[in-house]
Write a structure and sequence with these properties.
The complex is a heterodimer of chains A (114) and B (111). Chain A is mainly beta and 114 residues long. Helices cover 0% and strands 52% of the residues of chain A. In chain A, the strands form 2 sheets. In chain A, strands 2, 4, 5, 9, 10 and 11 form a 6-stranded mixed sheet that branches. Chain A is globular. In chain B, 39% of the residues are buried. In chain B, strand 5 and strand 6 form a beta hairpin. Chain B is globular, with a radius of gyration of 13 Å. Classes of the chains: A mainly beta (114), B mainly beta (111). Chains A and B meet through strand 5 and strand 10 of A and strand 4, strand 5, strand 9 and strand 10 of B.
Chain lengths: 114, 111
């Protein structure tokens, strides 16, 4: 049973555009939702994370939108740049602090065309 | 400040063999988690160590075991290797309840 469903599987966006990646979860006990960025040959790097007591969190060009009733959250990358080309993973856990085992989505391969 | 380090970078083993992977957490971190990432997939949680004890475990068989040392470094052991164990093995560390930071991983190939 896949507990975190991520879409789309791949995404092509023009430079300067907005990249949007969506995730849906099933476990209502989840209370911490991070996004990770992974480049080929590297480990995932934490981008931004949100807890369900807020509906949106913004850090630079990256924004998480969270809809608790729909059990969905999304990552928006504003002014997308070629350097943003990577694989993005959403994740979730029920620890509240993020240190416990994370359940990951299958990933979105993002390509930013110059 | 060194981040999470893992060794070796790459490893090739034969079916049935045993393997040990190593991880040194980020300075100041006391919790270590291990994940398996198959090609084209998201990481899957194997287990977590805190205060030298396994605190949490994902859906992996007992062939996967681990250890945490007093300096917080950790080892992942896999016995009776199967072809399906070929993957990138990631170590992540955290300080108490806060965010996990991942190492570069060990690429294991089982032939």
């Amino acid at each position: 049973q896949q507990q975190v469903k991520q879409s789309p599987q791949s995404l092509i966006v023009q430079k300067g555009g907005i990249s949007i990646i969506n995730c849906a979860y099933e476990n209502t006990a989840f209370d911490y939702f991070p996004w990770y960025q992974q480049f080929p040959g590297k480990g995932p790097a934490l981008l931004i994370a949100i807890r369900p007591d807020v509906s949106e969190k913004k850090e630079g060009r990256f924004t998480i939108s969270f809809n608790k009733s729909a059990k969905q959250f999304s990552l928006h990358i504003m002014d997308s740049q070629p350097g943003d080309s990577a694989t993005y993973f959403c994740a979730a856990t029920d620890s509240g602090g993020g240190a416990d085992g994370l359940t990951f989505g299958k990933g979105t391969h993002l390509i930013i065309q110059p | 400040d060194a981040g999470v380090t893992q060794s070796p970078t790459h490893l090739i083993k034969t079916r049935g063999q045993q393997v040990t992977l190593r991880c040194s957490p980020k300075s100041g971190h006391d919790t270590v988690s291990w994940y398996q990432q198959a090609l084209g997939q998201g990481p899957q949680f194997i287990f977590q160590y805190y205060e030298e004890e396994e605190r949490q475990r994902g859906n992996f068989p007992d062939r996967f075991s681990g250890h945490q040392f007093p300096n917080y470094s950790s080892e992942l052991n896999v016995n009776a290797l199967l072809l399906g164990d070929s993957a990138l093995y990631l170590c992540a560390s955290a300080n108490g309840l806060y965010e996990q930071y991942f190492g570069p991983g060990t690429r294991l190939t089982v032939t």
